[in-house]
Each structure stands twice: as structure tokens, then as C-alpha cells.
Amino acid sequence: MFVATTGGHLEQLANLAARIPASAGELWVTHANAQSRSLLSGRDVEFVPYVRVRNLPDVVRCLPSAHRLWRRYDITRVVSTGSGIALGYLPYLAARGVECHYIESAARVAAPSVTGRLLQRVPRVRRYTQYPHWAGSRWSFTGSVFDSYRAEATPRARADVLRAVVTVGTAAEFPFRRLISRLVPLLGPGGAVTAATGLPVEVLWQTGCTPTDGLPIDAVPFLPAVELGAALAAADIVVSHAGTGSALAALAAGRFPVLATRRAALGEAGDDHQGELADELVRRGLAARCEPETLTAADLVASMDTVVRSAHPPAFELAS
């Protein structure tokens, strides 16, 4: 069983699952939205109610489903990248003797999340960090979702029209209007990017739960993973919130994203871990980081001349 909430957690799990030695069969447990239906098309999936951030009643409501699926499918191993949904399944299944593995999100560069800290207290749950500097007796390190990506400076030929993708992920609770509002005068018709390049810009605005009333854009709240991936691959400019799933989607499409960090104090995220992730990707040379208020056309144009290549990553070995 593979268990994850939608968004970056599910994107990471799909990436890592391909690197985990296969068993006889697999079942995916997540929430239903455009991303999950597209990403998991053709697989056995159980869609379950959404587990909200730090919501204990939602976690408790997972238990009947965990019991039912354990009995129905004879689950022998479960792997999760969180977040709160992991608390609804792993402790129960561990108590039933199922082999349980929790892989902390790559967004957690410095220390485990609340989910990770709680699972440290649960017997028989094996835990993994994606960063060797905080591995130890409680957390193993066997690799990262970013292992297979490398950036190259490669100037791209300009077409008659520049294509841009702006994506703020699939979070249901945290809007990011601050980023969208800043990008409108930069990417919009006759905006700063057009002034800098002499080319018109076509923009795909994937806005999630962000309200866009009053903004002169054609917003698309959610896109199937296949459609978003195709748009990213065709884009000259990619601007994203610094979420793991959105960053991974851009890298997988060969794009060098400009990452804007959300702030918890402004109601844009549950905490400020996005800054740590953005800094890590900058350190790896895989992205540029910006704050929405200081983002310029020059930042966007500069990102166009770097591409990202991927290679076959090593296996992600689970502890026995």
C-alpha cells in the first residue's frame, strides 16, 4: 500500500515508488482531485476523504478505512510520504504487524515535520529522511527525490511567442494571491517580460485555491498531471511556489523553475519550510529563488537559458 495526501506528497511517493523494489501487487490510498486521478490512472486506487492539516478528527476517521483495506487486500507493507494521512494509517497497520515505512518529505530539509515527530513515537514504523545531515539512530537516509536531476546552461532559441506556466500547487487551505498579483504586470499583455524580450507571452495560470477575482487572467484551479506536465515541457518560463510537488513537476519536464516562497504569517502555509526547500534546490543548482515582492522580469528571462536533465536514479532501498 502506498499512502499520501495529494500535492507534493503524492508526487514524491510516485517518484520514489518507481525506485522501490516491486512486490506482488500495489494499492494506492489518497484523496481524489485532478492531480491524483491523472497521476494514478490505470492503478488500483482507493480515494478517501481529505485529511486536513493538523486535524485530529480527520486522522481518526481514517481508522475504519485502514482496517477495511488491511482485511480486504491482505496488506503486508505500507509506504507513506505523509502528511497527516500517514497518521491515520501507519500506526494502526503497524499494530497489526504490517511492515510500515514513512519517508519524510523533501521539503523538510532541517528536521522532521509534525507528522514525522509523532511517528517517531510509534513502534515498528521505519523512518527515512531525504537529507543525510540529519540522519541518525531514528532516521535512515537512502536517497532523495532530487537525486536524478542536473541543470545545464543551454541558451534556448526564441519562438515568436514566449510560453509561461505559473503554478501554486493543489493545497486546499492556503491561497497565494501575493505571487499571482505580482506576476500579472510582469507576464501579462504588454508587461515587463514583453518589454524586455520584444515577444508576447502566453501564460497558463494554475491557481489552486487562490482567489483571482479582479485579476485580468484566465485562471485554472487544477489541471490533470499529464496536462500540466505537457505545459511545463513546452514552457520557456516556469514560476512556482516552492512546493515539492510543483518543483518536481517542473524538473521532470526539464525546466529550471523560479520558486517563490510562501509565508506562514500571511496565511500562505502552515509553516515556513518552503524557504528551506528553495534554498536546497538553489544549492543543487536546480532552481532560482525569489520573494514575490522583489521578482523582476530580468529574473524570469534569466531562467530561460537553463535546462534540467534527468538520469536513471538509484534504487530506494527500504530497511528490512
Could you please describe the fold and organization of this structure?
Residues 165-297 form the Glycosyl transferase family 28 C-terminal domain. Pfam families: Glyco_tran_28_C. The chain is α/β, with parallel strands linked by helices. The chain folds into two domains: 2-145, Rossmann fold; 151-310, Glycogen Phosphorylase B (Rossmann fold). The chain is built from twelve helices and 15 strands. It has helices at 8-17, 34-39, 56-60, 63-73, 84-95, 114-119, 177-187, 192-197, 225-234, 244-252, 273-283, 297-302, and strands at 2-4, 28-30, 45-47, 77-82, 99-103, 125-129, 140-141, 149-153, 162-167, 201-206, 219-220, 237-241, 258-260, 288-290, 306-310. The strands form three sheets. A seven-stranded parallel beta sheet has the order 3-2-1-4-5-6-7. A six-stranded parallel beta sheet has the order 11-10-9-12-13-14, sandwiched between helices. Strands 8-15 form a two-stranded antiparallel ribbon. α11 links the parallel β13 (258-260) and β14. α1 (8-17) crosses α10. The longest helix is centred in the N-terminal third of the chain and has 12 residues, at 84-95. The mean pLDDT is 94.
Please work out how many helical segments DSSP would assign.
12
Main beta sheet, described?
A: 7 strands, parallel
Helix content: 25-40%
Query: Which class do the helix and strand fractions yield?
Result: alpha/beta
Arithmetic mean of pLDDT: 94
Query: What is the fold named in CATH at topology level of the largest domain?
Result: Rossmann fold
